[in-house]
Amino acid sequence: MKVEVRQAANVLDLLEFFAERKQPATMAEISEALSWPRSSTFNLIGTLSGRGYLYEPSGRGGYYPTPRWLSASQAVAEADPLPDAVIAAARAIRDSTGETTCIASASGLSAIMLFVAESRQPIRYFAAAGSRVPIHASSVGRALMALMSKSDRDTLYRRMDFDSGSPNAPQSAAEVEHELIEASKRGYHQSNSEFVPDLAGVSVPLPADRRRLSLVVAGPTSRCLEKRSDLYRHIVEALVDHDLSLKNMPD
């Protein structure tokens, strides 16, 4: 069962609120937009202001995030950056396929996107850094699971409910293991309308020293479903061009 800490969730909701609004907001506007009690809004705004994360640009009660958020996030990212070659390869794959290309890592029962090179086409797979998909019900997640030991996968299976809402997704640990075996034979992981309807994806594990990473190219089934082998070819070519090699996928 997922447990959400309300105070932490409120901070993230507030940051996303400003990211969408892109202008200062008063406490009353924040309270109304996020359906928070006035007292909770006052306490949170006061705390963040006191820590230097919010300020009043006009001095009239409107608050806005300070650059301290960016400084903190940059310091974190710079301490554990994605390899430049991996990012360059993802962008090259996006350019050669025309489809959204993402780099992901494992986070519990999810695959979380760390870098996204978004397609420039109007109808595309929309993703952003921080987007999450079920690790078992996505090609990018199963590519990560292929890097795990069977013991580690068994630990995940005991926590899964396999309720992705799609009949195309694996419905049991045995089905996931079957998908991993088939992917090992094929050379790549694939998906068809599993977690995201009408979305087809092709994924591979990535070489990244101590980290488990995977790469996915995904787009509408109308464009990508019958071209998954071609998408894989583009992936391989880009990895070779950037002196990267595919991780072996264990049986």
Describe the structure.
- By secondary structure, the chain is an alpha+beta fold.
- The chain folds into two domains: 6-68, Winged helix-like DNA-binding domain superfamily/Winged helix DNA-binding domain (Arc Repressor Mutant, subunit A), CATH 1.10.10.10; 80-241, GAF domain (Beta-Lactamase).
- It has ten helices and nine strands.
- Strand 8 and strand 9 form a beta hairpin.
Keywords:
251 residues; alpha+beta; Arc Repressor Mutant, subunit A; Beta-Lactamase; 2 domains; 6-stranded antiparallel β-sheet; 3-stranded antiparallel β-sheet; 10 helices; globular
CATH class of the largest domain: Alpha Beta
How much is the radius of gyration in Å?
21 Å
The proportion of strand residues reads: 15-25%
Mean pLDDT: 92
Secondary structure tally: strands: 9
Choose one word for the global shape.
globular
The unreliable regions are none
- CATH fold-level name of the largest domain: Beta-Lactamase
CATH architecture heading of the largest domain = 2-Layer Sandwich
Give the H and E element order: HEHHEEHHEEEHHHEEEHH
Q: Describe the biggest sheet?
A: 6 strands, antiparallel
User: What share of residues is helical?
Assistant: 40-55%
Q: Supply the number of helical segments.
A: 10
The number of distinct structural domains comes to 2
| Structural class label | alpha+beta
Order of adjacent strands in the largest pleated sheet:
6-5-4-9-8-7
End-to-end distance, in Å?
Answer: 30 Å
- The fourth-level CATH homologous superfamily of the largest domain is GAF domain
